[in-house]
Protein: 3'(2'),5'-bisphosphate nucleotidase
Amino acid sequence: MFSDATAETRSVALRAVRAAAALCQTVQADIDDTVATKDDRSPVTVADFGSQALICRALQQAFPDTPVIAEEDSAMLQTEEQAHILEQVVARVQAHEPAATAESICRWIDHGNADRYHDRFWTLDPIDGTKGFVRGDQYAIALALVEDGVPTVAALGCPNLPDNLDDPTSHGQVFVAVRDEGAMQFPLSDPDADGTPIHTRDTAQAEEARFCDSFVSAHSAHDKAKEVGDMLGISAPPIRMDSQAKYAIVARGDADIYFRLPRPGSDYTEKIWDHAAGRLVVEAAGGRVSDMHGEPLDFTHAPLLSENTGVVATSGAIHDNVIQALADYER
Ligand SMILES: Nc1ncnc2c1ncn2[C@@H]1O[C@H](COP(=O)(O)OS(=O)(=O)O)[C@@H](OP(=O)(O)O)[C@H]1O
Ligand SMILES: [Mg+2]
Ligand SMILES: [Mg+2]
Ligand SMILES: [Mg+2]
Structure:
């Protein structure tokens, strides 16, 4: 499915996301005092830092000149108060990189601290849906290469996502997508397994759609999504799920719409790492992604999606109807 032109970026991204997913799985298996609170009062864990260290290390080795814009930085790890977190990050990262030290790990994490737009950069969310991760639910490891403002290659690891939502016995997928070429799903459990091409659902009538939105009601207006769903004639209940796993389930046809709608009065601006990989996985699988007004997501104001309001991803054919319903609702 994929051309040779992206062979190196795909393989570095896929290997790095697999390693980070393995680290996250071991931390999630015995999560206890590994959660700290950032200045904005959001949670961060040993696994967020460990994942960012491993992936930034791999990107720096393979593509030393390509900046990385990632969510975390090492400042809080270097405080006395969080020394116990740093100690655990070192132990987890050493399981993959035996020569790693506290100092090299902090350097790798901060390799992800490019803070402005470049014509070519990586963007990384080492754990997206940290609240879901801590709860033992869905989370994602989201990595995308952005070229000329558009995501071109993505690897999206979803360690708790079953093959099929109706059969929750098997766990863990990684999605790889290349702009204009397609998207594939690989099981995380077997690095040698062949991937399966994925495609969005062929839904022509909005009333047949299923939609997903955030698990945490503070992140998206649940009531608005429900009312717009009602206007579209949707009767299926929403799928509430943490993280960019929502983009993955639209991409492979378990859902048709992902609504991320700002809550009334919210002045929150979406971050690029929460959407770059997911957007590409959906688009490469045949779907469409825009903001709630139908405008393309603009990654040239990195690290923020400052020109956009909300996000809507769909299986494709119904996109204009969904955007129209949102406009009618706002009126
Ligand atoms: N107020 C507000 N509004 C919108 N979005 C916010 C807000 N606060 C945080 N965030 C970002 O939400 C990211 C997690 O999104 P999710 O889709 O996983 O949310 S949910 O858990 O399903 O509710 C989360 O990503 P992670 O920090 O990587 O988990 C944040 O970047
Ligand atoms: Mg995130
Ligand atoms: Mg995160
Ligand atoms: Mg966070």
